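ok, trying the design again with the full structure, not the truncated one.
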């Protein structure tokens, strides 16, 4: 369960992504414009310390882009290259925001969801002293078999990141996790692991009513 807060955030997520996304090698769209937030989904951190959110945006007339981020209450040692910004949260205080492909908490969460048939976290928010369940704007599910063991977060030093056209490829221990960055007409995950055992996280949102592959997790044969 992901607990949301009625809070003021500076910079806003839109401002943050409008500045950061165009600097990335996988970016497709109009630079210099405010991005549009289409949908988002979250995963739970088993330790309850890290906010894990994936935001789907467009930049002008460009295709849908997928941007997973993590929110932490302190810097993640060894992950300076993945730091997007710091933000001020009126409830939680200062937060360090990371490109989640370099954060062990996200990698473990998305791999677990894909490999064990997991889903996005339930969203709850406190309104007038009552906990209210908020409808998700994106629904995701893994193709794996339920009941499997959760993936252990890798050490930061074990994470290797490579950018490819439309995707980010992460190697973490024995796992290879491929995040589709550009969700355009072509499925950038289609031929990423033809000879490896793998599972896929797929999802839908208001502008995408049919399942779309979002993340591929390849495992040792």
């Amino acid at each position: 369960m992901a607990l949301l807060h009625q809070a003021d955030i500076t910079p806003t997520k839109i401002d943050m992504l409008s500045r950061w996304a165009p600097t990335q090698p996988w970016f497709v769209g109009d630079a210099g414009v405010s991005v549009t937030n289409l949908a988002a989904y979250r995963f739970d951190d088993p330790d309850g310390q890290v906010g894990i959110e994936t935001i789907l945006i467009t930049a002008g007339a460009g295709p849908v882009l997928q941007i997973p981020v993590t929110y932490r209450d302190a810097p993640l040692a060894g992950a300076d290259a993945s730091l997007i910004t710091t933000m001020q949260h009126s409830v939680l205080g200062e937060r360090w925001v990371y490109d989640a492909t370099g954060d062990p908490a996200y990698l473990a969460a998305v791999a677990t969801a894909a490999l064990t048939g997991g889903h996005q976290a339930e969203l709850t928010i406190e309104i007038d002293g009552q906990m209210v369940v908020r409808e998700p704007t994106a629904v995701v599910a893994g193709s794996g078999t339920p009941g499997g063991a959760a993936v252990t977060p890798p050490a930061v030093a074990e994470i290797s990141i490579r950018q490819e056209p439309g995707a980010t490829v992460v190697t973490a221990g024995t796992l290879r996790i491929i995040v589709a960055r550009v969700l355009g007409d072509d499925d950038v995950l289609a031929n990423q692991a033809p000879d490896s055992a793998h599972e896929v996280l797929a999802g839908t949102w208001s502008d995408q009513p049919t399942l779309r592959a979002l993340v591929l997790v390849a495992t040792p044969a």
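Keeping the full-length input from now on. Residues 2-219 form one domain.
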